[in-house]
């Protein structure tokens, strides 16, 4: 072949090669044929993992849609998937709390006292729920064996789910439709808790640990209970060291329990004992979450009494009618 003909064919060959590459890479039909298959395969596998993880849940559709939204799902362990679900639940709780605050602010002059109290209950319960979910995350990520905390996880998640029911129960005697504004989101939160509990149950199957309902016991007490606390439960009143004394006759540090509770330290890591002498104390006690390690000690049944008379009939929610909370 002559050099002249070779020079003529060479540019044509280059153009043909470029055209072929361009057509293969950018022509929609050919491009989609080779690029969509791996993508569809990846999505299918992603959904399969979500469905497998959500097997046994009561609200499967919600569980699958939630779990399938997590990135890198194929790399996540079961505790990591539960943690991601808990984070998604926490986000919804915060949104519901914001909605309640906004609702209370906008309708404060139009709502009945029981509606306002019910909204306040919900806000406090949402706050409690966030604290419980944070503890769940700590238990799931604290060690390489989160199944050891199975009982704690079950208790915390069950408590968080109950909080949502208590929130809605506060509107039982409302004459307005206030409950309707928050009911949908609160019920969805409860479903997330239910699904998380079902997933946590799978951790139990991975654990070989067998314990009684209260965990391992020794001499009738749980092994996790410190010796000093066991001793406090066993000692008689006259042999116990008190941090504060409440007495109606003025012989103690305070005459009301609430005064003593306010004087107790916040976030204590040692037991703080408040001795309440014989008498009837007409007050409502609410132990704030910051008041940790508090112990109330009375003189016995029928001697130290804490009384109240709140009821739903008088416009109180069940949550607020408790004498001690």
UniProtKB/TrEMBL annotation:
Residues 45-199 form the Pectinesterase inhibitor domain. SMART domains: PMEI (SM00856). InterPro entries: Invertase/methylesterase_inhib, Pectin_lyas_fold, Pectin_lyase_fold/virulence, Pectinesterase_cat, Pectinesterase_inhib_dom. Pathway: Glycan metabolism; pectin degradation; 2-dehydro-3-deoxy-D-gluconate from pectin: step 1/5. It catalyses: [(1->4)-alpha-D-galacturonosyl methyl ester](n) + n H2O = [(1->4)-alpha-D-galacturonosyl](n) + n methanol + n H(+). It holds the Pfam family Pectinesterase. In the N-terminal section; belongs to the PMEI family. This is Pectinesterase inhibitor domain-containing protein.
